[in-house]
Design goal:
The protein has 209 residues and is α/β, with parallel strands linked by helices. The chain has seven helices and seven strands; from the N terminus they run βαβααβαβββααβα. It binds flavin mononucleotide.
């Protein structure tokens, strides 16, 4: 039995295009993989520790092989717990809106907590950085108000896909399956058709995922 983790990054719930497409993905996935477990992590209610001074010191202690103070140990324990929870899945689905050309801050906060030395990646002067979250596919459902796939200038402004592939690649992911829902801020009939096409794509991808 595999475990699929679905991370949801839009606060718009029933009005969200990314969530509507992700729900279609999950429906199709559950039908095709009836024995698998699906966990939803709603990043708008999931408790995350602050990544503050003590946590940053703890991170650098790990990188430099130094011991933690009591406060740093507490901070690092919380970070480890979030990473351990994340890394326990076999497959991942992320759904996210584009916000100011990038990703919503709740998802960025999540990455700032889990992307840690000795947990998500290792470093050695000989081999550089090595991601440790390996052999796990990720399905990525991106919603954006505008259109970014159409020409080089708009593509360059798309830091949403670029960031997700960079950060997930940094921690070891190599298999990305992307569904782009755009433009969602268009005439109602057009956005309806855009979401419907993305849902059909999501259902097909999920059956094979
Ligand atoms: C804070 C905020 C920033 C946004 N920034 C962008 C942007 O930079 N580019 C864009 O095309 N759309 C932008 N949008 C529009 C959303 O990407 C679009 O409405 C998308 O469908 C949201 O996904 P959701 O429906 O799943 O929440 C922004 C929306 C919000 C609320």
């Amino acid at each position: 039995m595999a475990k699929l983790m679905y991370l949801e990054a839009s606060p718009r719930k029933e009005r969200s295009s990314s969530i509507a497409v992700a729900q279609e993905f999950l429906k199709s996935y559950a039908a095709a993989h009836p024995g698998d477990a699906i966990e939803t992590v709603d990043l708008w209610s999931f408790p995350l520790p602050e990544f503050d001074g003590a946590a940053i010191n703890a991170k650098y202690n790990v990188m430099h092989g130094l011991p933690h103070s009591a406060a740093e140990e507490v901070a690092w324990k919380e970070v480890r717990a979030v990473f351990t929870h994340f890394s326990a899945a076999d497959k991942y689905v992320f759904s996210l809106p584009m916000w100011n050309f990038g990703i919503p801050y709740k998802l960025k906060h999540f990455f700032d907590v889990i992307v840690q030395p000795g947990l998500a990646f290792n470093f050695s002067p000989e081999t550089g950085y090595t991601g440790l979250v390996t052999n796990k596919p990720a399905a990525l459902i991106y919603a954006r108000g505008g259109e970014y796939s159409s020409n080089a200038a708009s593509k360059a402004a798309d830091l949403q896909i670029a960031y997700m592939e960079l950060i997930l690649g940094f921690i070891g992911f190599t298999q990305f399956h992307s569904i782009v829902v755009e433009p969602t801020l268009s005439a109602p009939e057009q956005s309806k058709a855009t979401v419907a096409a993305a849902k059909a794509q999501a259902a097909r991808l999920a059956a094979e995922f």
